[in-house]
Amino acid sequence: MLVFVLNAGSSSLKYQLINAETSELKASGLVERIGIDGILKHEVGENKKLTFELPIPTHKEAIELVLRILTNDETKVIDSIKEIQAIGHRVVHGGEYFKKSVLIDDDVVKKIENLIPLAPLHNPAHVLGIKICQELMPNVPNVATFDTAFHQTMPEENFLYAVPYGDYTEHHLRKYGFHGTSHYYVSNEAVKILNKKDSKIIVCHLGNGSSVCAVRDGKSISTSMGLTPLEGLIMGTRCGDIDAGVIPYLMEKKGLDTHQIINYLNKKSGILGVSGISSDLREVIKASNDGDKRSKITIEMLCSRIKKYLCSYAGLMHGVDAICFTAGIGENSDLIREKVCNGLDFMGIELDTEKNSIRKSGIREISKKTSKTKIYIIPTNEELVIAKDTFDLVKKK
Ligand code: ADP
Predict the structure, then answer these.
(1) Of 37, 79, 106, 147, which is the active-site residue?
(2) Which of 25, 44, 145, 288 would give a disulfide with 295, using CB separation of 3.0 to 4.6 Å?
(3) pTM for this one?
(4) Class of the 195-377 domain?
(5) What are the residues whose beta carbons fall under 8 Å from the beta carbon of 153, sequence distance 6 or more?
């Protein structure tokens, strides 16, 4: 079954065309700057990379363009869009409504809309993406896969904030967690390797946005992101955990309103804010190697925060069978992996620094033979989870 996987953002959309039965990736791409000017980067296989710069005023035109590219003579991977048998949408916020992927109907769309106050930047674009697909491909079933769904198994003690309880029941104030599809995929791959019941796994998804997740017996029991993706680790431009008292203090000192303080904490902080160099960790590592002190401290802060979560999650689960690193930083930075694992031998976490430094693709183990806890690099594949969930739900239907 050919599944079109779509991740619609406010001015961008990512897509993949996947054969859900064989896991074959037929094509993928990214449309950016929708409504501004427009650029489409399209990939077929390893070698064929195409870039188109043309006006793309709306999301509808963006999706129409992608469908044309998929079927156009020069770029085609399918003869007709009729070959697309299902569409899988990545949806950031599913609130407490959705504990797993679902077939989309009017009620599902309404619920995703109801959650807009919790994900004002993301859910409106997802709804738009869904409605456009329903219009352009009226007979094709749509499925939604939620970033929050995997974390719906967290126990109350790990998702509640210590504020008056009524604000949870009345205003839905709680930790939801994100990157759920990635944490599910990576921990599930680790479970397959470990081949063990009652597994205790910690997934470190370290990308532009980053989060850690404690997965016990295949279920998320705690994760570092919260009501919004701002909580937890230090990220590209997000501060992560911070004393809530910082907010009124800074608003007063700098004369910021609510929108400005949120922008400050989400867009101007994190790796970018501390280093003053970039949100791209590669540039910060380079500057640090060239002697830049703020870049050096940024890297230390980043790793210290990850280590804090790692150790607390190992404590929460009474041990850890495997630590998995994934996403841009987790998969590619031997420096960060080494700093995070350094000194944890006392808890049975022993990194093999030589294996860690070898650059290879695919899943690999980087712990020493003697390490009680296995350490893996597991490249994430959220789109494949969406395609497979879509296939399963559509097949059942
Ligand atoms: P996103 O969350 O946007 O999907 P990615 O998972 O692609 O992000 O991760 C992007 C981050 O990965 C950037 O900070 C980038 O600097 C970092 N990264 C990629 N390769 C390396 C590397 N070799 N060393 C350090 N950081 C890297």
Answers:
(1) 147
(2) 288
(3) 0.96
(4) alpha beta
(5) 99, 219, 220, 221
